[in-house]
Amino acid sequence: MSDLLSTGERKRENKGKVYIEIPGKIQKQAKEGIMCKSIVSKTLLILGVLALAAVPLFGQWQGDFRVTNNPGGTYTASYGGWVIAADDANVHIAYKDNTNVLNYYVRYFTFPIGSPAETSNGEMIGADDGGHHNSLPIAIHDGTVDISWYSHPLSHLYTREKNGSWGSIIEHGVDVDCCCPAIAFDSDGNLHNVFNHYSSTTGDAKGRSVYYQRKNSGASSYSSPIMAFDPHSDGGSSSTEYFAYYPSICVTSDDALHVSVAHNNGNLLKHVWSTDGGATWNNETIGGTNFARYKRGTSICHDSDDNLYIAYADPGSACQVYVATNASGSWVSTQVSEYTGNYSYWPSICCDTFNNVWISWDSRWGSGSITETHYNKYDAVSGSWGYDQALTLNDGRYSRYANFAADENGNVHIIWTDSRDDGNFEIYYNWFLGDTITDTIPPSGRDLAVVRILKPLGKVDKVPVTPEAVITNFGGDVDSGYAMCRITGPGVNYDKGNLEGIVYLEAGEEDAVSFPSWTPSGWPGDRYKVEVTVYLWPEKTTKDDDPTNNTRVEYATIQSAVQVDAIEVVKPEEGSVVDSMTPDANFKNVGTEAAENFYCYCEIVSQGYHTADYLDSVPVANLDPEEVKNVKFAKWTCDDYAFYEATFFAAIPGATHTLLGRKLFVVFQGTPLVGIAESADALRIEVTCPNPFISGTLVSYAVGYPISTTIRVYDVTGQVVHTLHEGELSGSGSLYWDGTDDDGAELAGGLYFIRIAAPGFTKTAKVVLLH
């Protein structure tokens, strides 16, 4: 039989499977991060390793790479409408450019697979008001690239296509109040677009429903919109607003359209599908009531057998991420995030060419809102999920809104938004190199790994704890090793070996090991680094086939005796359209002692400005441990078409608020209350002349009636640089600004915003200072 193989190849059989051994090459075992050596001479092996030293390695992450370098910040998407796509040669990325505080830009960037590059601004695709960061999906088919987005003022939908060069922008949707598009191509190059449409009319799918449009291959327009799913179809009153948020779409090999979405009419997870090109739609409920968190998005993909996989977050107070699949013939859900006590949401999912399923999500850490990017992988060979792994370090900076995509070569690509560089949000990229060898390679060599740290982790009390971790043998035979646990932080220098001594593991076996007791010696809020390393025995080294997985690091923080977290925002709802409301949230004492004489706060800020449009507080005399309190704040009324961020938190007031726990925020769209918009027309501001200016310019205003008014100049970061007026104002007039700050210092040239504000009303004008 060996005569049938090319020179230097050798075939062997193992447990009914046939494997090909190729001398001089490194081969991949079906676990990520694992390098397995072929059975070759030492000389050939050394030559093979040297030959690969300058190229990417199979079966592991290739390292973080910053894609954007923009002083204004750039953002990916936070839901299952992917902003990354890949074909057989290139990676394609769509992103939001936030350089201009008031007007966002949709941009596009591409680079060859294996050669990530950095860009300052990519190609601008959208108009001045182009696109919210939640919604700018990208898709590719046979070299044709499409990007879809929605704009802020009226929530119109737009699509632009590149087939060699960029075509015209196509406007589509259902008149106004459309958002959150997701797109996918079918095998013929037709583009399928699902999105949210809002209606405030009873009997007309009141709330947010899912609509669909189709753009045929090469066409310059979409079909008429069709309602694909109305959450009222699951019962309830037609006068109640229900929200089916953030649809995600994929197209299977038979060109059937499949959509995942969750909604608040029972917190249901839905599979919505069409087998006739989007003409008619069916739907089914996965699980039951209180099954999915509708405000945190879903994501859908399929494998080569057209089995579906839907990622979603559960509605529990300690939100976790799950994947539902119909691969067995009925829907089965598996929890894929493991960090109890931290919130996990905004999942993104994809399937590679080997039918491995990859999922990423935001994992929120600590008492604030800091998030890191985590992931898990379903291994098609073993038929099981792996474990919750951190892709980004828990460094106190935001890593969020990750998006997965697989290319045609078996590689997997991921991008996310990261604030590690001086707090400015940039887009980062990493990729996992697949294996071009299609035969499954059996494990060989030695490879011990630390796959999980169980304790201490997350929030801990000042009581003795027994550190624990899980080690796994990814090698091809029985192996032995021991582990060391090191804990560093305020007042501690812990370095201990595992209590079990030498541990023996069969190939593929994992086991938990424990270490001598440790007691945190610091104070509430102190943070400790927990590092566990597994060593080969008897060599006492980490130099096995993959040394990168021998050490794992996590963090533990002493929880406060008093800690009050905002745990749920009742109003406003994430992504909702609001003209007026009574902000409403639930707060919980998650500490160990009663909280006394503090305040619960609600702050509402227009996106792009850092000064509060609204701030209200409610005093709380006492909140016992584990007690939950619902707090309603003063009424808020919208006066401008804009996106707002509402933040809820508990604090002790003072010169600077002393936070008592975790903040919670939601983003929503404001629309002026009927009557307010007309009244606001009495408040006007404009830069009359000159604009742009060099030495000075006139700012004209109009105020309909005597009222306390401020007119301030902001830079592009949202900081106040000059106050032109503060006090009562009435009628019309002009103010002169000479391009200096409040101290009389000359400001740098660039874009500035002049904002007039009165109670309940704001207007903004732009001006450019030249030097």
From TrEMBL:
Q: Which residues form the FlgD/Vpr Ig-like domain?
A: 708-758
Entry-linked Pfam families: FlgD_ig
Listed InterPro entries: FlgD/Vpr_Ig-like (IPR025965), Secre_tail (IPR026444)
Q: What is this protein called?
A: FlgD/Vpr Ig-like domain-containing protein
Q: Which organism is it from?
A: candidate division TA06 bacterium B3_TA06
* Keywords attached to this entry: Membrane, Transmembrane, Transmembrane helix
User: Which regions span the lipid bilayer?
Assistant: 44-61
Q: Answer yes or no on keyword RNA-binding.
A: no
